[in-house]
Each structure stands twice: as structure tokens, then as C-alpha cells.
């Protein structure tokens, strides 16, 4: 049985957790200065999500990243705002579904 990678990408975009995690990562590092201390192991995954074109999984990639962005501020990217909009959409969809479900119930 083959797994279709395209459908996996679709499924991840349909999950609210993906958008919430991305927004939290962007907010966590917003306005922090990029330096050697920020490139600790615990921060690499969120930074990799914020800078997907950077190769932070190797020491050479981290060195190149630091040379390019050293002493610059981490800024919320466009994906942060897309995440906020996506989460708002999930909230609206679930709220509407709740209201419609409650209206269909019989009154006591």
C-alpha cells in the first residue's frame, strides 16, 4: 500500500494544530535577536519552520544561517498571519456547526 505524500500535505493543512503550532512558534521568537544562543537544539525546529529555506539540520547550515541573519530580529512572517486566519476559520466553522447541531435538537 502506497502513501500519497500530496494527501498528507492536504491533511496537515486541514488540522488546526498545525496552524496553532506555527503561530505559537512565530510569536515565541518575534523580536528576538538571532545569535548563537538562539541556535540551541531546542530552538532549531521552530526556527526551521520560520526560515524553511535555511539548512539548520547541519552545523554548516547553522553557520551560514548565523552569518546571514546574525544580530537581526526574528520577525513574524506571512505564514503567521495565514495561521491566525486559518485558526479563525476553524473557530467560525466549528461555532457554526455547534449552533446548527443545537438548533436541530428537540426541545425538552
Features:
108 residues, mainly alpha, 5 helices, 0% strand
Write the layout of secondary structure elements.
Layout: H1 5-13, H2 16-29, H3 41-50, H4 59-69, H5 78-104
Helix pairs in contact: 2-3, 2-5
Order of helices and strands: HHHHH
Give the fraction of residues assigned to helices: 55-70%
% residues in beta strands = under 5%
Distance between the termini: 50 Å
Q: Please, what is the average pLDDT?
A: 80
The number of helical runs is 5
Major sheet attributes: none
The parts where pLDDT drops under 50 for at least 5 residues are none
Taken from the alpha-carbon principal axes, the silhouette is elongated
What Rg do the Cα atoms give? Answer: 19 Å
Number of strands: 0
- Helix/strand/pairing class, anyone? mainly alpha
Structural write-up:
It is elongated and about 65 Å long. Helices cover 66% and strands 0% of the residues. The longest helix has 27 residues, at 78-104. With 108 residues, it is mainly alpha-helical. The mean pLDDT is 80. The chain has a domain at 31-101. It contains 5 helices and no strands.
Amino acid at each position: 500500500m502506497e502513501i500519497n505524500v500530496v494527501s498528507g500535505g492536504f491533511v496537515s493543512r486541514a488540522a488546526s494544530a498545525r496552524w496553532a503550532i506555527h503561530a505559537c512558534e512565530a510569536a515565541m521568537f518575534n523580536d528576538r535577536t538571532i545569535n548563537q544562543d538562539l541556535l540551541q537544539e531546542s530552538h532549531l525546529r521552530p526556527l526551521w519552520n520560520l526560515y524553511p529555506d535555511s539548512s539548520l539540520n547541519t552545523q554548516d547550515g547553522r553557520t551560514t544561517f548565523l552569518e546571514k541573519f546574525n544580530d537581526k530580529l526574528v520577525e513574524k512572517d506571512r505564514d503567521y498571519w495565514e495561521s491566525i486566519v486559518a485558526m479563525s476559520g476553524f473557530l467560525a466553522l466549528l461555532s457554526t456547526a455547534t449552533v446548527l447541531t443545537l438548533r436541530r435538537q428537540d426541545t425538552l
